[in-house]
Design brief:
Layout (H helix, E strand, L loop, with lengths): L1 E6 L4 E8 L3 E9 L1 H4 L7 H22 L9 E7 L3 H18 L3 E5 H12 L7 E6 L4 E8 L2 E7 L5 H11 L6 H9 L24 H16 L6 H27 L3 E5 L6 H14 L2 E3 L10 H13 L21
Parallel strand pairs: 1-4, 4-5, 6-9, 9-10
Antiparallel strand pairs: 1-2, 2-3, 6-7, 7-8
Helix pairs in contact: 2-3, 4-10, 5-6, 5-7, 5-8, 6-8, 8-9
Length: about 325
């Protein structure tokens, strides 16, 4: 079965053709980073306008690279939620137009389910059930994946996401957007024990995350040093921030794995590309005898191939939509429709 997929939830316009949820026939991504970098983050109105400019091109390119035609695909999948509403609407409306003109089934896909599905492309042998840590700029979840379309949230952030903590503190340090990537590289040359930051806890919810206090502590430390005329050791600061965030993520994730009995563990989302997170999880899983999976670096960020993968399983489960489908800025990963 061949799925044509569109992704436009934030600042990347993407289209892909995926076979049987596991094989990429084509994947095209048009990035907007060059436009948003001057603002230090994504500007929603600009993102929406740029999606309008790019979507026709990426759709044509994806079909050309797959050497196929829209009439030859079996279904059209699209990210319908969650994300920036203006961005989502561009992809959803374009997909609805394609589905109508080509008379193809329309499959709405949850963006975070797509991130999880990126692992199905990277690992042909990976099948549910497993426990997944989904970490990105806007989301931090621990999800029990009981089946391809049956998921339960074990833990989640109560405020900021891990990726947002990276990006906001990186901007305070003067690093360009997207800050998490630049911080990861800078941290490789720093001392992770140079600065100590608080480890937040959520009373009564041992698997939930909180990063706002950590983010505030980092920003206050940097501002205090600047006010005193002290030189900021950027490598040490980056390494200390990265270690703090990774410690929080891995400690909560492994506690949830221990308590739920899961020994097959998965990483997903943009922050799953973080080099320390991968190394730390590799080390922990080797010691505990757990299986660990994470996507190829090219599939960690937003892309349409992951939407095509999850779209395949959503279609098999009967999750299709008519032309009344609307985008939603927020929606739980637990809900299929």
């Amino acid at each position: 079965m061949v799925i044509f997929a569109i992704e436009s939830s934030c600042d990347d316009t993407a289209a892909a053709v995926v076979r049987d949820g596991r094989e990429i026939l084509s994947s095209v991504v048009s990035s907007q980073v060059f436009r948003h970098v001057e603002f230090g983050g994504v500007v929603p109105e600009i993102a929406g306008r740029m999606h309008c400019e790019a979507i026709s091109f990426v759709v044509r390119q994806a079909l050309q690279e797959a050497d196929t035609d829209i009439d030859d695909v079996d279904a059209i999948a699209v990210t319908a939620y969650p994300g920036l509403i203006g961005s989502l609407l561009v992809g959803v409306n374009f997909a609805k137009g394609l589905a109508m003109t080509a008379n193809k089934p329309l499959v709405p896909v949850h963006h975070l389910r797509g991130h999880i599905a990126s692992n199905y492309i990277s690992h042909a042998n990976l099948k549910p059930p497993f426990l997944c840590l989904v970490v990105s700029g806007g989301h931090s979840h621990i999800v029990e994946v009981r089946d391809y379309t049956d998921m339960r949230i074990i833990g989640r952030t109560r405020d900021d996401a891990a990726g947002e903590a990276f990006d906001k503190t990186a901007r305070t340090m003067g690093l360009p957007y997207p800050g998490g990537i630049h911080m990861d590289k800078l941290a490789e040359d720093g001392n992770p024990d140079a600065f100590t930051f608080p480890v937040p806890k959520v009373n009564g919810s041992p698997y939930d995350f909180s990063f706002s206090g950590l983010k505030t502590a980092v920003i206050n430390t940097i501002h205090n040093m600047q006010q005193k005329g002290m030189e900021l050791p950027r490598e040490d600061m980056a390494a200390s921030i990265r270690q703090s965030v990774v410690n929080i993520l891995t400690d909560k994730f492994m506690l949830a794995a221990q308590d739920t009995g899961h020994r097959k563990l998965v990483l997903a989302g943009g922050v799953s590309a973080n080099s320390l997170l991968r190394r730390r999880m590799d080390e922990i899983c080797r010691k505990r005898g757990c299986e660990l999976y994470y996507p190829e670096l090219s599939l960690c960020g937003d892309n349409a191939a992951m939407i095509g993968s999850q779209g395949y399983y959503e279609y098999l489960s009967g999750n299709t939509a008519d032309l009344s489908l609307n985008a939603k800025a927020e929606k739980s990963i637990e809900i299929s429709k």
